[in-house]
Amino acid sequence: MAPKPEVKKTDKPSKGAKQVKKSSETKPKPPKRGNVSKTSKSLKGVKGGKVVKPGSKRVDKVQKALKVKRALTLGFHTKSKKRIMKVPRFRRPKTYKPPRCPKDRRFLIPKRNKLDAFRIIQNPVTTEAAMKKIEDNDTLVFIVDRRANKPAIKAAVQSLYNIKVAKVNTLNCPKNIKKAYVKLPPDFDALDVANRIGII
């Protein structure tokens, strides 16, 4: 028997295959422009793959969350302007100094008043000039502490001798001594007060 002639295979596909290929290669039709604009306007917030309608509570929450996130990323000091130095002298700005609140007190015993009435008035002056002042001008003369001022001397005399004081004059002597001339009002007699104190 004679061999059958070989049939040459052609690259062209059959009619059925051609139709299938065309159907697979068909491109999807693009959506109409009107529909696209509508969807873009209606979609204002999307959360978790779900479409959220505008004006709903979920949209407000999403917007708030985005606003907070943006504020955290930017930081707090965003509107401060850079200050330009035009003067060579630099003055340190005033900064906050927190008040001290120590856990343990440094001094447990409170400080006593070192200038009390007994320390201010040391002793009365009993010279002839001082006696003349008592008789003529109704003034008592005392030697006082150098650190004491006129109001302190007045308060000390009033508290010690139970008398009223009209005026106080002071004199700083060269030998580290301070004298106080205490003028009494007309209600009090300086001689009686001097006798009661023990000056005379």
Provide the CATH superfamily of the domain at 117-192: RRM (RNA recognition motif) domain
- Supply the helix-strand structural class: alpha+beta
CATH class designation of the domain at 117-192 = Alpha Beta
Question: From the coordinates shown, what is the CATH architecture of the domain at 117-192?
Answer: 2-Layer Sandwich
Low-confidence region ranges: 35-44
Beta-strand residue percentage: 15-25%
Oligomeric state, counting identical vs distinct chains: single chain
SSE sequence, one letter per element: HHEEHHEHEHEEH
The order of strands across the largest sheet is: 3-4-6-5
Total number of helices: 7
The profile of the biggest β sheet is: 4 strands, antiparallel
**Total count of strands:** 6
Description of the structure:
Pfam families: Ribosomal_L23, Ribosomal_L23eN. This is Large ribosomal subunit protein uL23 N-terminal domain-containing protein. Keywords: Ribonucleoprotein, Ribosomal protein, RNA-binding, rRNA-binding. One of its GO terms (cellular component) is ribosome. With 200 residues, the chain is an alpha+beta fold. 36% of the residues lie in helices and 15% in strands. It is built from 7 helices and 6 strands, in the order ααββααβαβαββα.
List the helices and strands and how they pair.
Elements: H1 15-25, H2 33-42, E1 45-47, E2 50-52, H3 57-74, H4 117-120, E3 121-124, H5 128-137, E4 139-144, H6 150-161, E5 167-173, E6 177-183, H7 190-197
Antiparallel strand pairs: 1-2, 3-4, 4-6, 5-6
Short description:
The chain has helices spanning 15-25, 33-42, 57-74, 117-120, 128-137, 150-161, 190-197, and strands at 45-47, 50-52, 121-124, 139-144, 167-173, 177-183. With 200 residues, the protein is of the alpha+beta class. The chain has a domain at 117-192: Alpha-Beta Plaits, CATH 3.30.70.
